[in-house]
Amino acid sequence: MRLGLAFRAFFAVLFDRVAAERVRTAFDKAVEAPPSGDIRPEPAAEKERAVVPRDQRPPQKAAKSDALILLEVLQREGRLIDFLKESIAEYGDAQVGAAVRDIHRDCAAALERIFAIRPAVDQGEGQSVELPSGYDSGIYRLVGDVAGSGPYRGILRHHGWKATACNLPVWTGSAQAAQVIAPAEVEVRT
Q1: N or C: which end of the chain has fewer CB within 10 A?
Q2: What's the rounded Cα separation, in Å, for the pair 22 and 76?
Q3: What is the pTM of this model?
Q4: Which residues of the chain have pLDDT under 70?
């Protein structure tokens, strides 16, 4: 449970300036707290932290995965899931190409708005690159004839991608709707 929370906090701090400030504030308050001297809580504090049966706890707000929120945006703005879930075997290449053009444009615009995606490195593809021993494998991936521990010399084949922002919409909804990517549409007739 704590490991999952640590990962969520890490990525929130990495991609969300507001979350980073909240974590910094929480850490600052923890450092400012006077030392207790004794690790064990006082008896009154133990009573306050008594385990409350699940059926007596206040209901928690339902959470929606950031991955599902992203899928929701790509569906709403680019109809990506509709396209991927539909069989295209009976359509000609021209029909598929025409559909893909709109999906490509709309999904690319959504990704740019949310993540502001830029090349991971500033060098141009095809340029010579020298990586020292201990290079960051999160930024560079070695391909080809890799031997030893570096430094490495090679040609940049792909500049990679990085998100320079992470502005996912905030989801507010019920627990029943937390897994829904696109709501069912009902046409009302009078």
Answers
A1: C
A2: 30
A3: 0.61
A4: 1-20, 23-62
Structure tokens at 182: 């696109």
Pairing of strands 152-155, 128-131: antiparallel
Angstrom CA distances, 117 to 23, 35, 113, 179, stand at: 25, 44, 9, 26
Which of 151, 161, 152, 164 is closest to 125 using CA atoms? 161
So what's the pLDDT on residue 145?
Answer: 85
Most distant CA atoms of the chain, gap in Å: 75
What length does the chain have? 190
- The DSSP line for 77-111 is HH-HHHHHHS--TTS-HHHHHHHHHHHHHHHHHHH
**Amino acid identity at 47:** K
- pLDDT number for residue 23: 66
State the pLDDT at residue 9.
66
What b/e readout covers 14-24, taking b as 16+ CB neighbours within 10 angstroms? ebbeebeeeee
**6/30 Cα distance (integer angstroms):** 17
Structure tokens at 2: 């704590």
Distance CA 15, CA 20 (A): 8
Phi first, then psi, for residue 54 (nearest 5°) are -55, -40
| Coil, helix or strand at residue 162 | strand
